[in-house]
Design brief:
With 362 residues, the protein is α/β, with parallel strands linked by helices. It has 14 helices and 11 strands. Helix content is 38%, strand content 13%. Helix 2 runs parallel beside helix 3, helix 2 packs across helix 14 and helix 3 packs parallel to helix 5. The protein binds flavin mononucleotide.
Length: 362
């Protein structure tokens, strides 16, 4: 599809989507991006229903144009039934660290940590009518997709391979987010990610944005949104030259004034350590890209003892809190993409304008 047609259908002046980043930003950042003419996103996976509504209100109260479009982003995984054996093996692996920090593993509260799209999410979408709803990890039940579209929103989802893009196209999405291997945070991989035993092998299907975007453009008839490793105006232009309609940028926004990125995480992103990232399943059970730290070095970034997503989260959380109290990110998920060169401690409105500087449609 022609780029200007797609931008018009979303209602944006600039071909920039601020990537939804759970735990790192909310409505304030989405509004700043909207005020520049891009598409701001609110990540909902780690928010309660009230929390989602609060962020939508924050967005609405900070936008200059009351009709500015918004993207609500959800995960759509199947939450597995907890397995006692799986949790025991995981806690046994972490036992030396629990000892080090005097944490009693029996005191750890179990909980899924991330929620998938459900009826309550649909009710929020129907009440607040965002212009776009995007998904990570495939799509929810077809009934949900139809209900969202008939409510007036475009449905987007991440694809990490051409096969995933074709799968999404068959199921009626309006555009495909081609997420290259450089991307920070969780990989949207969903067709190959369930066979935990061979996760390391599944990850060999993952390719860079430079390889993925043009192949996705050729193989599908949908608008393609490029994500992964895009850090500046030249990167945005390169992805549009390769056939993408819009660029989705995440990591570059993580130092922005509106980001809720912790001080520890900000320091890591701005340090030479950020030159070394890896895909790891240690923090949630699914592969995600973060800055290499002690636990990734000691247990290996991909470890087959880790419980299925998102059930790994609860056991590692107290280690993170204990280490962070001493100013250490040894057990923190320091999500980051491979290209941190565009991270700037400025307002997200300004960063959005800078990202779009070489591709503004006249
Ligand atoms: C800190 C962080 C959190 C993320 N959280 C989400 C999320 O909640 N939902 C989602 O669809 N993608 C999430 N992503 C992935 C982004 O949508 C996007 O694919 C990625 O940021 C693009 O690559 P880049 O980080 O190199 O710009 C996250 C990325 C980061 C860096």
């Amino acid at each position: 599809m022609n780029r200007s047609v797609f931008q018009n259908s979303v209602g944006i002046k600039l071909p920039i989507i601020q990537a939804p980043m759970a735990g790192i930003q909310g409505g304030a950042m989405a509004a700043a991006v909207a005020n520049a003419g891009g598409l701001g996103s609110i990540p909902c996976a780690m928010l309660s229903p009230d929390g989602i509504v609060k962020e939508i209100e924050a967005f609405k109260s900070a936008i200059v144009n009351p009709h500015a479009p918004l993207n609500l982003n959800f995960f759509c995984h199947q939450t597995p039934n907890p397995s006692e054996a799986e949790q025991r093996a995981w806690k046994d692996l972490l036992a030396p660290y629990f000892n080090e920090f005097c944490i009693d593993p029996a005191s750890i509260a179990e909980g899924p940590g991330r929620s998938p799209f459900d009826d309550i999410s649909l009710a929020i979408v129907q009440a607040h009518r965002p212009a776009v709803v995007s998904f990570h990890f495939g799509l929810p039940d077809p009934y949900f997709v139809k209900a969202i579209q008939s409510n007036g929103a475009l449905v987007l989802s991440s694809a990490t391979t051409v096969n995933e893009g074709l799968w999404l196209q068959e199921r009626g999405v309006d555009a495909i987010i081609a997420q290259g291997l450089e991307a920070g945070g969780h990989r949207g991989i969903f067709l190959d990610a369930d066979s935990k035993v061979s996760l390391a092998l599944d990850l060999t299907t993952q390719v860079s944005s430079f390889a993925l975007v043009p192949q996705m453009v050729r193989a599908t008839r949908l608008p393609v949104i490029a994500a992964g490793g895009i850090a500046d105006a030249l990167g945005v232009k390169a992805m549009l030259d390769l056939g993408a309609c819009v660029a989705q940028v995440g990591t570059a926004y993580m130092l922005c004034d509106e980001a809720t990125t912790s001080q520890l995480h900000r320091r890591a992103l701005a340090s030479p350590e950020a030159q070394h990232t890896a895909l790891t399943n240690l923090f949630t059970g699914r592969p995600a890209r973060g800055i290499v730290n002690r636990i990734m070095r000691e247990l290996g970034p991909i470890n087959s003892t880790v419980p299925r997503f998102p059930l790994a989260t609860s056991a590692i959380a107290p280690l993170r809190s204990a280490a962070e109290k001493h100013g250490s990110g040894d057990f923190s998920a320091l999500w980051s993409g491979q290209n941190t060169s565009g991270c700037k401690a400025i307002g997200a409105e300004q960063l959005t304008k800078e990202l779009a500087a070489l591709v503004i449609l006249r």
